[in-house]
């Protein structure tokens, strides 16, 4: 509620453009030709045209009358908006020029579209005054824009644009810093979010839009280049109007993203083509279509109970109110700013979700480390192993010593890899081999290890193959005197890396049907921890025993 009061409090500062000079304006009239007498205060111009008549390269005159109700309290000035070059006369006195009017042997030097002039105190007494322009428009002759004049204190005419521009520069600087920050965040992130890049681009475009809109107060732009800036502003507005809904479709998981964006893009292009050169109107149409598209997405997000959707809808409603009641130059940018702030809020929600996922992954990693340790210190395993170890020591001390060394080696490797997320594949294979040695002493079954295509530079989550090996030992029956054979094969393509682990033996008949025990859940958790969703795991019976496949897709 306090923010609403603050917004209402600052609205008068934006909409109040009342002049400190009290005056009355009269119609503007035009006349082709050149006569210095037309500058005189008492010249009769009742027969002149009320509409500008195309003059080509020729000189033409413009006259109007201004009635000052009260003498200004300070130096008065005049703002003139016009195409061409002209000389300004006040009551027949030359008070300024803009560019250089074309002559017989001298081409026109284009003036700027907006100029400000100070008027001497002696010429701004209360009463009727004549304002005359000796002008030419040798370029853009088809653009008959007429002329606009406005009186105010000269100080106000100079300082008001500077105050407005300074505020907009603060705003544009904030968006530039935000853009650079999110670009750095995107390119230096291990897991790049598409919404981060889109938000950075929107902030950069909004910065460029603000600079282009108010650069006219810094640089003298000749009227011949007047439309270049407006074209650039129009294109930037169009791109922003497309990117903002795109951001919302991704952030809120909008199902009909492609349909909506294609329709929006076609609509924006049609607005540009069928309403060409109506720059302010086009910008309003662009922002309106952006607002409608964004509202559709946000309403759908509210229905899907997405976080932050209600606040974004409130921001969209606030932006349309601001755009309706403020002057166009301010309303458009402030409404855009509100929408971008809503996007920033959504981005913070997403960042919080990523942070929560990170903490969850840390907890998962800790649980997996504990699970890995528990796999080898469980009482059942230790009891059976120690019982077998006692028997071997009593019957064959030499073999018993080998058994002890193998068991120690397995525990040593387990201790080494327990806190690692990824380990070299060769270390995983060594763990499997020493485990086979331990189990061969325990079960007195011949276990054979085979491998092919192994890339020594590859890494894999710890105890992944070891867990599959344990399942093969537990659920397989030796084939006569050949024992049980285990074959690990590795294949690398441009799309994925694949480990195939085959147990060649006779499969035990399961006591009950199961979709996967703790071993499979451990494998899936480890793969998710390291590779997200870019993996597949299959385990199924085969004519020769059992085959398990781990397929890891490249990022």
Plain-language structure description:
The chain is of the alpha+beta class. It has 3 domains: 22-145, Jelly Rolls (Sandwich), CATH 2.60.120; 157-356; 378-553, 2-Layer Sandwich (Heat Shock Protein 90). The chain has 13 helices and 18 strands. It has helices at residues 2-15, 154-187, 194-214, 226-251, 257-274, 279-303, 309-325, 328-377, 379-395, 397-417, 425-443, 464-474, 518-531; strands at 23-25, 29-32, 59-68, 76-82, 85-90, 93-98, 114-119, 127-136, 147-153, 423-424, 447-452, 459-460, 476-477, 484-492, 496-504, 506-507, 535-542, 545-553. Strands 1, 2, 3, 5, 6 and 8 form a 6-stranded antiparallel β-sheet that branches. β17 and β18 form a beta hairpin. It is rod-shaped.
Low-confidence stretches: 1-16
Helix/strand/pairing class, anyone?
alpha+beta
Number of helices: 13
Provide the number of structural domains: 3
């Amino acid at each position: 509620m306090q923010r609403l009061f603050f917004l209402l409090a600052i609205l008068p500062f934006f909409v109040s453009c009342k002049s400190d000079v009290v005056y009355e304006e009269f119609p503007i009239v035009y006349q082709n030709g050149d006569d210095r007498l037309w500058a005189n205060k008492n010249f009769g111009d009742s027969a002149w045209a009320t509409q500008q008549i195309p003059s080509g390269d020729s000189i033409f005159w413009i006259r109007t009358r201004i009635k000052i109700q009260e003498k200004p309290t300070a130096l008065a000035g005049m703002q003139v908006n016009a195409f061409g070059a002209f000389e300004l006369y006040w009551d027949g006195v030359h008070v300024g020029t803009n560019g250089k009017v074309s002559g017989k042997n001298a081409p026109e030097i284009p003036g700027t579209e907006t100029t400000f002039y100070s008027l001497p105190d002696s010429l701004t007494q209360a009463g009727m005054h004549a304002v005359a322009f000796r002008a030419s428009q040798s370029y853009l002759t088809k653009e008959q824009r007429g002329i606009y004049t406005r009186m105010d204190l000269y100080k106000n005419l100079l300082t008001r644009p500077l105050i407005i521009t300074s505020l907009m520069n603060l705003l544009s600087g904030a968006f530039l810093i935000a853009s650079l920050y999110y670009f750095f965040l995107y390119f230096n992130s291990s897991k790049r979010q598409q919404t981060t890049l889109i938000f950075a681009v929107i902030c950069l475009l909004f910065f460029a839009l603000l600079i282009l809109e108010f650069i006219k107060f810094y640089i003298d732009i000749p009227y011949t280049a007047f439309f270049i800036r407006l074209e650039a502003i129009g294109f930037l507005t169009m791109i922003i109007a497309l990117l903002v809904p795109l951001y919302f479709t991704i952030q809120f998981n909008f199902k009909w993203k492609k349909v909506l964006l294609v329709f929006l893009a076609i609509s924006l292009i049609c607005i540009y083509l069928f309403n060409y050169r109506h720059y302010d109107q086009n910008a309003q149409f662009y922002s309106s279509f952006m607002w409608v598209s964004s509202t559709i997405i946000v309403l759908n997000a509210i229905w899907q109970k997405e976080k932050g959707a209600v606040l974004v809808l409130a921001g969209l409603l606030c932006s349309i109110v601001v755009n309706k009641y403020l002057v166009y130059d301010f309303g458009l940018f402030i409404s855009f700013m509100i929408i971008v702030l809503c996007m920033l809020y959504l981005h913070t929600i997403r960042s919080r979700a990523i942070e929560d996922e990170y903490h969850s992954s840390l907890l998962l990693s800790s649980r997996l480390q504990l699970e890995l340790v528990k796999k080898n210190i469980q009482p059942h395993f230790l009891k059976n192993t120690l019982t077998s170890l006692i028997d071997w020591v009593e019957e064959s001390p030499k073999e018993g010593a080998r058994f002890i060394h193998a068991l120690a080696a397995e525990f040593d490797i387990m201790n080494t890899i327990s806190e690692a997320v990824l380990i070299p594949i060769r270390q995983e294979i060594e763990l499997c081999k020493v485990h086979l040695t331990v189990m061969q002493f325990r079960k007195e079954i011949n276990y054979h290890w085979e491998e092919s295509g192994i890339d020594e530079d590859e890494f894999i989550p710890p105890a992944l193959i070891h867990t599959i090996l344990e399942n093969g030992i537990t659920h397989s029956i030796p084939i006569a005197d050949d024992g049980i054979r285990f074959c690990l094969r590795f294949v690398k393509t441009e799309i994925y890396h694949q480990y195939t682990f085959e147990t060649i033996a006779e499969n035990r008949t399961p006591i009950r049907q199961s979709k996967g025990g703790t071993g499979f859940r451990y494998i899936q958790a480890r793969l998710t921890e390291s590779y997200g969703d870019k993996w597949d795991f299959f385990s199924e019976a085969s004519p020769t025993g059992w085959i398990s496949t781990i397929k890891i897709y490249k990022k």
